[in-house]
Amino acid sequence: MNQKGLLTAWNDAKGFGFITPEGGGERVFAHVSTYAGRGRPDSNRKVTYSLARDDQGRPRAGRFQYAGAARIIARMAPGVWVAGAVVLVFSASLAGLFYRGYLPVSIIAAYGGVSLLLFVMYWIDKRAAQRGVQRTAEKTLHIFELCCGWPGALMAQQVFRHKTRKGSYQYVFWLAVLANLGALGWLLIAPEAMNWRQQFGFDLSKSLRPLIW
């Protein structure tokens, strides 16, 4: 895709339009079947495309997609935005608890560090699956998800389109998420967790219990 242009005169009902080359010249026919993004393309968008010819020698786009940042957005599944919103809300909640003195920085660092590591592990496992080589054991991924890495796993699943259609994996994944959140809640408010809070560096003069009970 070394050609650049602007998608114009797009007829979505019929599924075709034309690309006006960036440097000028004859318009290039483009059909929705050769669109490389998700969903349906829109007119007046900058695109890159490969140039081909039909049976009559007329120029047509062999394959086309949005250019620049729009290309990345167009290739993302809707689940990416949902996962991003969940991670953002959770991260904002952790930041709020830290700001009010109810959560030590070590817990936030654990979520951030393990999530980043697990995101990379998902990427490696996805490439291994594509190449047909040795994979990362599912139980290993689940252990890291349980140990504060589930936000990174949630994003990786959607970004790489990996492990999203396997029902048994998703079942264990969400159990790990619930278990992790339950453990975090217990650590924040349970009297029995006082020794653990001391080990993790909580401010023991503050407690969430008065806010909850």
Automatic annotation (TrEMBL):
SMART domains referenced in this protein's UniProt entry, alphabetically: CSP (SM00357)
InterPro entries: Ca-reg_mRNA-binding_domain, CSD, CSD_CS, CSP_DNA-bd, DUF1294, NA-bd_OB-fold
Limits of the CSD domain: 2-74
Localization in the cell: Cytoplasm
Gene Ontology BP annotations: regulation of mRNA stability
Pfam family, one: CSD
UniProt-recorded name of the protein: Uncharacterized membrane protein YsdA, DUF1294 family
Organism of this sequence: Marinobacter antarcticus
